[in-house]
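Translate sequence into structure tokens.
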Amino acid sequence: MTVTLAVGIGDMTSATVSTAGLVLGMGLFAVEHLTWWRGGGGAAAAGGAPGGKAKDPKELLPFWSGITFGTLMVGCPAGILGYLAGFLRWGGNGLGGVLQSWLTGQSAPTIATAAPPRLDGYGAVVVFVAVIVLWLMRKKIAKASKSRFKKGVFVGVLLALGTGIFAVIGDLVVPGANSLGAWALTTLTTVDLGSLV
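Result follows.
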């Protein structure tokens, strides 16, 4: 049985970010932080004290973990994560472009082309371990945290290709993963067990 797609997989990915995609990512970023700052439900939504867990930094951990993972996806040169990052960028550019066109009548120009730092073999090990841990922990993670993580991944994929301040995120996360992987594998393969006994 042969399945024919109307468009090729390569037509449904993007190696660029448009101004509309970047603004969509910045908007989601701002809304998440504003909701956190104001208390965004928390105990108030569950019938507890008004304000919930306002300004508790732990509440942003799933979102920022998602941003980190989305940035690492952008650093993947290929594979499922690399293609998924391109697909999410394509969707963000498309959704942002449609909204911008409807609101202003103008199309969204490209603001950045994919040129983030790339994961090397050591950074790929870190991402691989992260995927395994996320897969094994998927049933134990609260639904609200999963939602924030997924939103963070989408924002990370859109903002990691940006310029200026957004490029700093990619320039910190991807080389950091490469260094962490190199350190961990070097330590694990060269440790002298005699000194531990």
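Note: The two ends are 60 Å apart (CA to CA).
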